[in-house]
Amino acid sequence: MASAAELAKTRARRDVRNRWLLSAPALLIILLAATGPLLIVLVYSFLAPGAYGDVKWQFSTDAWVSVLLERDIFDDTLSIADAHLSIFWRSVKLALGTTLLTLLFGFPTAYFIATRPERMREVWLFLITIPFWTNLLIRTFAVLEIIRNEGVVNKVLLATGVVEQPVQMLFTDFAIMVGMVYVYLPLMVLPLYASMEKLDFRLIEAGYDLYATRFKVLRRIIFPLVKPGVIAGSILVFIPSLGAYVTPSILGGGKNLMLGNLIELQFGQGRNWPLGAALSITLMAVVMVALLAYVRNAGDSEVRHG
Amino acid sequence: MARPFSIRHQTGFTAIAVICFAALYAPIAILVIYAFNAGTSIADWEGFSLRWFVAAWNNSQVIEVSIRSLQIAAAAAVMATIVATMAALATTRTAPYPGLTLKYAFINQPLMVPEIVTAVALLIFFSRIKVATGYSGLGYLIAAHTAFCIPFAYLPIRARLESMDLTLERAAADLYATPWQTFRRITLPLLWPGILAGLMLTFVISLDDVVITNFVKSGGQDTLPTYMLGQLRRAITPEMNAISTVFLLISVGIVTLFFFISRKRN
Description:
The complex is a heterodimer of chains A (306) and B (266). With 306 residues, chain A is mainly α. Chain A has 2 domains: 4-79, no CATH class; 82-305, MetI-like fold (Orthogonal Bundle), CATH 1.10.3720. Chain A is built from 13 helices and 4 strands. In chain A, α1 (4-44) crosses α13 (273-305) and α3 runs parallel beside α7 (173-196). The longest helix of chain A has 41 residues, at 4-44. Chain A is flat, with a radius of gyration of 25 Å. Helix content of chain B is 75%, strand content 0%. Chain B is globular, with a radius of gyration of 23 Å. In chain B, 40% of the residues are buried. Classes of the chains: A mainly alpha (306), B mainly alpha (266). The interface between A and B is large, with 92 and 91 residues.
């Protein structure tokens, strides 16, 4: 006869099996329409481009070489691909700039919400989340309308006599950055608020009792305590900014490309799917490094506070 | 008289916060205002009129892409919420078992990869299948939307499950309810707010998607966002503002509903 221990074991095993069955549909859909295709991208990055898009099934490392280098069509020598490098640089520069600016504006905003009376906090937070849930395309379109040459900003500048001619803002790096700060600001405020909500104001009071200035309290007490929120917010903003596609294609006007647009180009006019695949893997690798750094950092700070 | 010293105050923070809130809403407000412009410009105000809403309503293409968007969003939201509920039931309220962490990683994977990369991957994969099977219907878009919607349904449902009281289910089992009866009569009603939240969020997320849809769609399968993206490259009339306004109203309406449901829960 089976002992009680064996019975419990069989039951546990059946439970685990049922749990796998129950989660199977979700896992299967993600495998088929998200994770699986990513592996195919990796394979494609090692193939040769077909003449009309798609690929030829022969092994080639050309795509990976041309991520950073370009082959001279006459003498076959390799040199640094300036066009790609400048797009990489613009992507990193704009993503970092966006992260910094959203932090600069988001930090005081989150602090403002966290210091409201408890009932009001929910309402302010709701006001931050509404734009977050509204269509990214429409929000980018809204930015486009106000920074156009005929837009509100230029009208005000002209009317007040600050400038004689409308300032060309649209289709510049500046426009892309404004757009990204605008659309990703809620992503910075939400995690910042989450860590500020738990702020212990007795520590701040203690700081003032010990003759700290407001700035010192901010720098030495508040900032270190909400650092996990700062890091989480920065990651949440940096990742979509680096891979941004919609915002630069609308506000950058097809000249100021970012990595996302460069990738798209390879599948459109460029007809170089392997290069597009290699660029996609590159982008994903950078994002993974950022995420890993975040996970390690989050683990560290938990240990310290724990 | 000087204000009393407040330990919560930080110089300039309130001003910046006010600027942020104003900056978040001003562009949207201007967009909505010009939807009611009588003229054909989105820069010069020529009086109040509803003509652009009428124009959008009479534009058969706008209606067609809107219906397609709603169909895809409804299908993806329902499917994603059902499978996410099952997955949430399978991954909560249990001792860690082999593969649990892997499941978490898997389910949240669509959140961690840049959208453009997923879009490219799906373009490659689905174009192969399209050639192999000859089928090029809406199924691809629905599958893609379901996949990236799953984590958005999974997270609120899991949160709800984790905060739920286990004793009621145990009581039901003590009273000889079958596992199915327990689920149907106890677990599901308690879980309902989480499921509803999942449904609404995934619906909005699917409705908003531009990048993945733009890469996966076959010819003649534009959704409202991809149609708008195409129109933005041409001359813009207030009709775009009118469409955006209606679109915004739908999203904001759903999110507000979600806000009040989750508020009642607390």
